[in-house]
Specification:
Strand content: 5-15%
Number of strands: 5
Largest sheet: 5 strands, antiparallel
Number of helices: 3
Structural class: alpha+beta
Distance between the termini: 26 Å
Helix content: 40-55%
Shape: elongated
Number of domains: 2
Order of helices and strands: EEEHEEHH
Length: 205
């Protein structure tokens, strides 16, 4: 299994100093993080004692990065791996890989999507009941009606949250497929949309 090239995220002695400027068009970088705190981790799953030593792992192929990350999370269940393309942190990661036992806890998973919709439905059902209570009291209480509108607005927020996550997931899948097409085009000998020469990944530069 390919282990990639480990490079520091920023190194003043290197040219170029920023990690994203080292990546070629079809290359990608894997970031190892703690699943709960999002703290950057080294290859052994431990936080960096020196922030300047924070690094990522660069791969020529997305599949190689995926295999590397899958092996890491299986060995270290507390780890989450994020794979970025040559655009760096300008976009969400192409892939987020966690231990199989933790996938249902990801906010884009079907479990949380169903829960958000269920909460919205319960809130929408509560609103008419609260308005009915207020009407029974000839609108003298006011609080039930206020709570009813709050339920409706909160329910709409949950639905919008779910919609936004699904939209982000669709955009991620589009970018993922575009990256794979670019890899296939490169393998076939066709030029990709980026023509810049790939800088050296020598971490000592």
């Amino acid at each position: 299994m390919e282990s990639g090239v480990q490079i520091r995220l920023f190194d003043r002695r290197r040219d170029p100093p920023d990690w994203v400027d080292l990546l070629g068009p079809t290359q990608c970088a894997a970031f190892l993080k703690d699943r709960q705190s999002s703290v950057s981790l080294d290859a052994d799953g431990k936080p960096y004692s020196n922030l300047e030593a924070t690094a990522c792992f660069v791969f020529d192929r997305l599949d190689a990065a995926q295999q590397f990350c899958e092996a890491k999370v299986l060995a270290l269940p507390h780890m989450r791996c994020e794979i970025y393309d040559a655009e760096g942190l300008a976009h969400p990661p192409l892939m987020v890989i966690v231990h199989p036992d933790q996938r249902h806890r990801e906010e884009t998973g079907s479990f949380w999507s169903r829960r958000r919709k269920l909460i919205a439905m319960v809130l929408f059902l509560m609103a008419p009941a609260l308005i009915w209570v207020d009407m029974r009291r000839a609108n003298t209480i006011v609080l039930p009606t206020f709570l009813a509108f709050t339920c409706i607005l909160t329910g709409l927020r949950f639905l919008y949250w779910d919609f936004a996550l699904k939209h982000r997931e669709r955009e991620r899948l589009k970018r993922l497929e575009a990256h794979r097409r670019m890899e296939r085009a490169t393998d076939s000998g066709f030029p990709s949309f980026k023509t810049a020469t790939k800088p050296s990944l020598d971490p000592n530069r």
